[in-house]
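Request: Not sure, any thoughts?
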Amino acid sequence: MYKILCLFIISLFFGGCGQDENKQNKNLPKISVEHATEGQELPSKITLMPAHFGDLKNWYRDDIIKAFPAIKASCAQILKEKNVYMSNSELKIPTAAYQHACKKLLNSDISTSAELRFFLDKVFTPYLVMDNNKSEGKFTAYYESLLDVSNKQSPLYPYPIYSKPRDLVEVNLSDFDSKLPNYKIYGRLDEKQQRLIPYYTREEIENRVLPATVILWAKDLVDFNIMQIQGSAVARLENGNTIRIGFDGHNGHPFTGIGNILLSQGLIDKSQASMGEIRKWLKAHPDQAAKELRKNKRFVFHRIASTSSPVGAQNVPLTPQRSLAVDRQYIPLGTMLWLETKGPLNEPIEQLVVAQDTGGAIKGVVRGDFYWGSGNEEVLAQAGKMNSVGHYYILLPKTLEINNEKTK
């Protein structure tokens, strides 16, 4: 079966392997700039423009020591990383260079914003992140939701919260050939046809019993789906005690936002497109909500978490308003970013954050999801309204040389 799986992967991607050969270069990280012909849209490609800390809005006023716990947690994780380049992202940052900077930081006795600012100014350089030559992107917010659950199934608690299924196969293409992209696919083995096939969709999962542990049973379908979108939740048991549910994988199907689904069907208008308003509509139309929610084929699996806060994709606890979900295809997890955007009340957000998480809807070079924190309706109302234009700078160790190369 292993040989069959390998042959499947190689045959699927063999035709496109050659185009990635020219990406291998010793002078990394190398940022390529392509030029499109008139009327042609460029494919997404990360480009960087060097800047100075003085160019960053609010740099000298942000209380950046509040980001220090997130920075230290990410640095501790980066020191464990064995990849040559951080997260194997398209921005090729040598892991050793960031590890060297992290060791300096973790061995320091920094305790104030002024000391942290001085350290970063001496050790790092900010670079404006662009998609080709465009620096503006979309920034939203997410939060850790509250979910009523039970340890036992009953008519009041009918929805299973699954751990990662035992028949779910995760394959990273680059594990089979370094010329293949660093891209994961998910599926299950079809024993009869002896091949890897896509895993069950959300609708298929709802209509079968998975070979997985049911960690808890949810009371409300809408809140269960919101937890799936957010990735984690605070679960409130029938006796009033709470436990934390964390992310444990997904079925590999593309994510489709419920807001986009309802908008495309004409069921809500743009003024109702915040998460709070979407939740109200779903609660008010339970039968139709169940039908529309199935159109998002992505299904998330969960685990009981022992941490005091939710854990992101970098496997570190998230820090409210200092953790950012990014597209790890472009932005390596654990890197520090200077974010400049607007909050849900149009208030400026100009502060230091750390790339510690990912999300099904967070796709693109300049794209971020701002972790707002844990809470109830009030937190949802704030986080769900954020939909802003902004940009960010990535902080890279001064030991790196960034080359912008024009390619035809």
